[in-house]
Amino acid sequence: MALRSLCLLIAVLLPLMHADASNVADDLIVGIQSTKTTAIRPLEPLERDFMSIYNLMYEGLMVINDDYLPDCALAESYSNTGKTWTFKLREDLKFSDGSPVTADDVVATANWILNKAKDSESANKGYYMNLKYFVSSISARDDRTVVVKADRSYFGLLYAMTFPVLPAWALDTDNPPGTGPYRVKSFLPGNSLELESNPNWWQNPPQVKSILFVMHSKPAEVIEAYEYARVDTAFTRQIASAQYKSGTSSLALDYRTNQLECLLMNHSSFPLDSKNVREAIRYLINVDYIAQQIYNGMVERTNTPFVAGSWMYNDHLDSYFKQDAAKAMALLDEDGWSDTNDDGILDKPNEKGNSVKLEMDLYVYEEPENDVRLETANYIKDTLESYGFSISIKMVSYEEAAKKLTAGAFDLALASYAMDPCPDAGFMLIKGNTGNYCRYRSDAMTDLCSELRTQMEQSNYQYTLYKIQEQFAKDCPFICMFYRSGTVLTRKMYTTVRDVRELELLRGIAQFRE
What we know:
About 25% of the residues lie in helices and about 25% in strands. The chain is built from 13 helices and 22 strands.
């Protein structure tokens, strides 16, 4: 059955988030961290903060709206017949240099991304490499019509069509023209970048005419610049930013990152091959304590790989995730574990009749200037050992951790996934997939993830996501803890959108009006 949608791009304006900060006028100064970006290359971003800048300069066929659903941007409509998608461009679209936007530009941009992603000799596949999993071919029917062929009929493809569209001639140039509300006025790498409003933007001109980004080499320097009022706004992911609260002249806007923190459990390693043991660990660990006391609340809790509070999240599974020590000990007892020699560590006989202890290694790696994972590991160790486990913490580098996970040479591991915008966790749940570090094997889960990739309607897609999360809760492949959060500190109100998110930290500024 064909899917048809006529899209209107409407800014969803809500009541002001906080009345105390002053509204932005016609300019804004923003502090960011940047040490790597020496050229404006939107298809090859090197730093998170620059992604938020690129999102003001470049647009895709589609955009993800406040409800985290795909909506039209450069496309005014789209339709679907089986594995073929047709996108119709808005009339009279122009790049910031005044040249027209055509379907050929969309096709050339997509093919540049696909060719880079499929280049076996290239170490850097590009930020938008996942497009290759959605698009098998793309072509222009005429100046305003883009035709996409896919390997499957799949609602998730719409999330992949958010890549920035560039002029066909400018794909390998620095500072290519874009279609967004802003364009570059000046750029001094490592120092500053100034944007000015784009006179050729297809929507109403933004109130904020100029945005100056001041670059700093370290996160602490960004905070310092804000504290001393050298900038109006600052982006930070530091846990310490939790101390900043909205007050009489300043706002602290929390935003969700795409970094999902997990406790991975290796199913090919004894004793974690037992679901009882995995479930017992889940019942014993107080993730809310970790979130509030160790991460200072700089997180958004979730019990599954999907964003809590959104249309995709199944919130009817709470009973699986509540802390319950009695239930945990009952599961371990059922599995044959007891402390036979009163040494405080549970044990049981193996197949040869020898006594084996309930012991395992916990691998952890850290980010620079951040020790929250190690604190979390120590909390997990102390908690589990108080119930008869023996846990040995192994502190390793990120590179060493990656090797351990890929080889399956671990018991427990604190690690994070960078989640794709498309709500599809098959890469970590389907047996044999590269992100399935836990060696989780479930035919039921694999079938559900495969079924998800055949759903065209959002309602059916949501239903299948709910079933995937139910299976996840029952099987306990690993423990999802939370999405990391960051903070936008600002003295000037610049947005009224509901969902300020990582890589779009100035989202809504072009539509803001005093």
